[in-house]
Design goal:
The complex is a heterodimer of chains A (256) and B (244). Chain A is mainly α. Chain A is built from twelve helices and no strands. In chain B, 40% of the residues lie in helices and 26% in strands. In chain B, the strands form two sheets. In chain B, strands 6-7-8-3-9-10 form a six-stranded mixed beta sheet, sandwiched between helices. In chain B, helix 3 (93-103) crosses helix 4, helix 3 (93-103) packs parallel to helix 5 (137-149) and helix 8 crosses helix 9 (229-243). Chain B is globular, with a radius of gyration of 18 Å. The model of chain B has no long low-confidence stretch (mean pLDDT 94). The chains are: A mainly alpha (256), B alpha/beta (244). The structure holds adenosine-5'-triphosphate and magnesium ion (MG). Adenosine-5'-triphosphate (ATP) binds next to strand 2 and helix 1 of chain B.
Chain lengths: 256, 244
């Protein structure tokens, strides 16, 4: 465990000293929260559109933020792989599992901090817009969005292991777009229905936002919360396992 | 006692034989220099000895442990400073050292002590709190070497340690390396004859992936009939490349 810890400490320091991480991981989700709230304010009440209302928005933004954690993971891993640093670490007693753990753990922590910060901003917005937002629900959501955080971090590790510093961000952009549209972050998939809803349901992202939104409203029913959470857990495990295998086999190839 | 032993190491890439049947032995506490023109196979040899590259054939042992089947043990006993300087850019000098020490499982007190030792040995006090990415090339190189040494390795591999260092920094680093003599086995590659002459107990001259000659400077002078390492090197390198 000390090797995972040492590497995790290094990764978190590298991350915290990169100004971009504050802009993307903390700033951007909060800015989107404010912008979308302004959009919501200009939608007439008769339209009956609640997707940008803070209680719906908060869960979406939590998942949206996680997509940027994915981008950061991919960047960190691909950058490490392109330089001589990782190669030198291969000659140390660090095993592939130590590297993988050392990447995933701090990123998960950063993701939790990000979600908490976004929710704190959401709480302030809810007070200003006089919308009700349950603090207990927000706290529960910080916890129950962790599996989806791990899934996105898994995607980041996967792309960072397999692709270069140049192409990994492109693939992340693809997931960011897929995640925000087919995750139902920016529109109400269920109200839209049809092919769109089917597409959403075929990909894991929609279940991420659904878990988050249900937790925020303290709706822990099977259909609204438990089932999506289980799906996220399964997908998260699969993606992370795939990422770990990819990292390990790339490491092996580098050492051949 | 033998610290490093290579037996007929071969490394082939697609249609290129980078290292062609290299055998060498280095006694404990001695400093062994690998000389050779660009592309001679020095880095590839070091990579195979430090578990960073699997040999196509042949085998290597560090303190009797196989670099192929006992990599776990070997990795705890070696330190390597790669040809390309490699440090964690956003960490300070001290943090880089502490990180390396932590990877080897040292406790807090020992991490602190070893980091202090390295900072003193390489005279890095003035930059210890500077981020690695703000360091000049020479300072980064010193840090990279210090990171290889912090884990108290029994065998240290230095791939062109003084590349890009100014005359003063180079001499300073030589003194640091000289303090290791007798305690740590060192294998270093260099393009500077003066460096090999001053530091090494034995020298191997690599030409086209093969070791063309091995011995102390006096022995190599005898073999080649020349005096001074530079003359010896040119003679042996030219003679062997004509034979190919
Ligand atoms: N990964 C690789 N794939 C293909 N060829 C390689 C690879 N690594 C090294 N080589 C080739 O093997 C040969 C030996 O390279 P090596 O880096 O060991 O030389 P060197 O003696 O360290 O040279 P230099 O003094 O320039 O550092 C070179 O011809 C190089 O092109
Ligand atoms: Mg080299």
């Amino acid at each position: 465990m000390f090797k995972v810890k040492a590497f995790a400490v290094r990764n978190i320091k590298e991350l915290m000293r990169d100004p971009l991480s504050y802009i993307f991981c903390l700033g951007f989700p909060i800015v989107m929260l404010v912008v979308m709230t302004l959009v919501n304010e200009s939608i007439p009440e008769e339209a009956g559109m609640t997707i940008f209302r803070i209680d719906n928005l908060a869960g979406g933004i939590a998942v949206f933020g996680q997509t940027f954690i994915m981008l950061f993971t991919a960047l960190t891993v691909s950058k490490d792989r392109s330089g001589a640093f990782l190669i030198r670490m291969y000659a140390s007693p660090m095993r592939s599992a130590d590297f993988i753990g050392g990447y995933i753990l701090p990123m998960t922590a950063v993701s939790a901090v990000q979600t908490a910060a976004a929710f704190a901003a959401a709480l302030i917005i809810s007070l200003i817009t006089k919308t009700s937002l349950n603090i207990l629900g927000l706290l529960a959501a910080v916890f129950f969005t962790l599996p989806s955080a791990v899934m996105f971090i898994g995607f980041g590790l996967l792309f960072g292991s397999l692709f270069s510093e140049k192409s990994a961000p492109g693939l992340c952009a693809l997931i960011i777009s897929l995640g925000s549209f087919l995750g139902g972050i920016w529109f109400d998939a269920e109200a839209t229905g049809g092919v769109m809803l089917k597409l959403c349901k075929a990909l894991p992202f929609w279940y991420c936002t659904r878990t988050a939104r249900s937790a925020i409203t303290l709706d822990f029913s099977f259909d609204e919360f438990l089932l999506p959470l289980i799906i996220v857990l399964i997908c998260g495990t699969a993606v992370t396992a795939l990422a770990a295998i990819s990292f390990k086999s790339k490491m092996k190839a580098d050492l051949s | 006692m033998t610290a490093v032993e290579a037996k007929a190491l071969v490394k082939k890439y697609k249609n290129k034989t980078a290292v062609d049947s290299v055998s060498l032995t280095v006694e404990k506490g001695k400093l062994f220099a690998l000389l050779g023109v660009n592309g001679a196979g020095k880095t590839t040899t070091i990579r195979m000895l430090s578990c960073l590259s699997a040999p196509t054939s042949g085998e290597a042992f560090i303190n009797g442990h196989s670099c192929i089947s006992e990599t776990e043990t070997v990795k705890t006993e070696i330190g390597i400073s790669p040809q390309e300087t490699s440090v964690a850019e956003n960490l300070t000098v001290r943090e880089n050292l502490e990180f390396m020490a932590a990877v080897y499982g040292f406790d807090k007190a020992k991490i602190k002590k070893r980091s202090d030792d390295m900072i003193n040995l390489f005279s890095m006090v003035e930059v210890e709190n500077a981020r690695a990415k703000t360091l000049s090339g020479g300072w980064k190189r010193k840090l990279s070497i210090a990171m290889a040494l912090i884990s108290e390795p029994k065998v240290l591999f230095l791939d062109e340690p003084t590349l890009g260092l100014d005359v003063l920094a180079r001499r300073e680093l030589w003194s640091a390396i000289e303090t290791l003599k007798g305690k740590i086995t060192v294998i270093l590659t260099t393009h500077y004859m003066e460096e090999a002459e001053r530091l090494s107990d034995r020298i191997a001259i690599m030409v086209n992936g093969r070791i063309a000659a091995t011995g102390s400077l006096t022995e190599l002078e005898k073999i080649s009939g020349r005096t001074g390492l530079e003359e010896v090197f040119v003679e042996i390198a030219e003679r062997s490349s004509q034979n190919v």
